[in-house]
Specification:
CATH class of the largest domain: Alpha Beta
Order of helices and strands: EHEEHEHEHEEHEHHHHHH
Low-confidence stretches: none
Strand content: 15-25%
Radius of gyration: 21 Å
Distance between the termini: 42 Å
Structural class: alpha/beta
CATH topology of the largest domain: Rossmann fold
Mean pLDDT: 95
Number of strands: 8
Largest sheet: 8 strands, mixed
Shape: elongated
């Protein structure tokens, strides 16, 4: 079945993530109206900025709420008629969305990440059955969109894929600095590091399309020769606590998402 994008979508907030979603929607042919009191002109071509929430309500029936978590419920309480409300705020629960929106509304809690602007996002969402088709339609073509079975796991999505790009970029910078330290120019080192990370993921994804049972450690072993350079590098990573640090990062970000939900 061919994808039919929404004709109009209302955005509340055009920050980094809200702006990324708006830009992706515009490329699909959706007319995006946005309300952001911090802006006087739209920073995104094809997005029409309106001056009030009332004006936004007149233009769309589906709204993406892309404001900081502490503003989500106050903003939702301003809406006067039922609609479809998609919140991308960390920690704000589905019940908080439902109790803050007009009766008869459809609510969705979603955690996207920034690569969606390049159609490579990783998005987890939670909602009742009536919200599934709206969510899949809204984020169509922006990347992997996965319905999460239990809402309690949405905080894990936030800690893993929501915050994940920052972890990957930190790893990328560390690799680039290591090459610089060993004598490569920064551009040479960064270019090699970027292609290594992206190429490895593309290669592993291709392997997984043929065999879902392929494990990352199995493939790692293919490039780890006895007494070779890779095993010495891996040993240094583990002595530095690399795997534990990554797990701790996801765990701490998950805990913070839970804390945000408690206000």
């Amino acid at each position: 079945m061919a994808h039919t994008p929404f004709k109009t979508v209302g955005m509340v907030g055009l920050g980094k993530m809200g702006g990324a979603i708006a830009k992706a929607l515009v490329t699909q042919g959706t007319h995006v109206f946005a309300f952001d009191p911090n802006l006087k002109v739209s920073p995104i071509e094809g997005v029409t900025l309106v001056s009030t929430l009332d004006a936004l309500m007149k233009e769309a029936g589906l709204f993406v709420i892309a404001v900081k978590p502490n503003f989500v419920q106050p903003v939702l309480r301003e809406f006067q008629k039922p609609g479809i409300f998609v919140s991308i705020a960390a920690g704000i629960t589905y019940d908080q969305l439902v109790t803050s929106t007009p009766k008869g509304s459809t609510c969705v809690r979603v955690m996207p990440n920034l690569p969606l602007v390049s159609n490579r996002g990783a998005m987890g969402y939670y909602c009742e059955e009536e919200g599934v088709s709206h969510t899949e339609r809204l984020f169509y073509g922006m990347g992997e969109c996965i319905r999460i079975s239990k809402e309690t796991l949405m905080d894990v999505v936030t800690g893993l894929s929501g915050s994940g790009p920052a972890y990957v970029l930190t790893f990328l910078q560390a690799m680039a600095e290591a090459g610089l330290q060993e004598g490569l120019s920064y551009e040479e080192s960064l270019g090699l590091a970027m292609e290594t990370i992206e190429g490895t993921l593309v290669y592993f994804r291709d392997l997984r399309t043929k065999d879902k049972a392929v494990h990352p450690m199995e493939v790692r072993n293919w490039v780890t020769s006895p007494g070779g350079t890779t095993i010495f590098g891996l040993d240094a990573l583990e002595r530095g606590g690399f795997s534990t640090a990554v797990r701790d990062a996801v765990r701490r970000a998950t805990e913070r998402s839970r804390e945000l939900g408690k206000g």
